[in-house]
Every structure is written in C-alpha cells, then in structure tokens.
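Predict structure. Chain length: 178.
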Amino acid sequence: MNCEPNPQEMITLKHPGPVALARATASDATLSTPFACTVESGEDLFATVETAMARDGLMTATFTLVQGNIARLTIMTGGVATAHSPVGFCGPHVIGGPVRIVSGTGICGLDEAGHRFCHCHAVFADTAGRLVGGHLMLGKTIADASGAEIEIHPVHNAAFRRAIDPETGFAIFHPVAM
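Prediction complete.
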C-alpha cells in the first residue's frame, strides 16, 4: 500500500453503505470531576487508563494526554484508498523514543461484546521537534523514565458503545443511554 498521499490532490470519499441523513447522535449523560492519572515508567498508557477506571468503577470516560514522554510508541496512520475501502491505513509504525506528548484525546467505551475498549489519537514531538501522530495501538504506548500525565473525564448514565456504522462499514463509537 502506498502510504504517501498527495496533499495537493483533493478527493471525495464515497463510503460503501447508504448515506446517513444524520451523522450526529446524542445521549443524556452526567459528567463528574476529572481526575489526574500517572502512567509510570515502563507502563502502557491504555493499561493505566483501564486500571484507573476499574478502580473507580467507571464503564466509560474520555481522557486527555496532558504531558510527559513516551519511550516506545506504535501508531497507525491514514493512507490511500484500497479496492475495498475509500480510506486506507498504514502501519503499524513503531517509533522509538523519547517522544514528547503534544496533544491527544481518547475514549474508553464498550466494544460489541460489552467489554471496555479504548481508542486514542495523539500527536508527539521527537527530540528534533518533528511531529508524528496517529491512532495509538493498544498495549504499545510505553511511558519513559519520567512517566506521563493523563486526565480522565468520567461519564455516567451513558456509554460510548462500539458498533458497525452502516455507511462507512467501520466499527465506531455511538453514545447510548445506560
């Protein structure tokens, strides 16, 4: 797969399913006070988030990467369309650190079987200041010796539930009442 799209070329994505009339959905939810969480040296970002959520009895939350350094990172990035999809994916890309957190947000919700599932996109800077970003791979975002800080935003009375989107054919989160 060619992972070097032409940034000068505008394309229109045509997904395989019927066009949805409304792309936005909502569900009433209650938010509680966000809390800080530290990803210790050598620990995986997602494992730390899931442990903190389980400790506090949370089923769903959003989270923000606040600051810190990552020793090893594995990401997926967007790519050129394939015969089977109007969008492609490149990777996984393994990036040795340290890389500094620039920005990132994620969701922890429920997968199709009702198990907790986290999804995060983030941007990092290497020691030369070059930026790299994409979809973080579960179990493969490891904090360096200085650790990393995350802020978890608990969601109550609703959940993000992953389900196949009929238009795109992708498993994406949808808000549902709990």
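Summary: The two ends are 41 Å apart (CA to CA).
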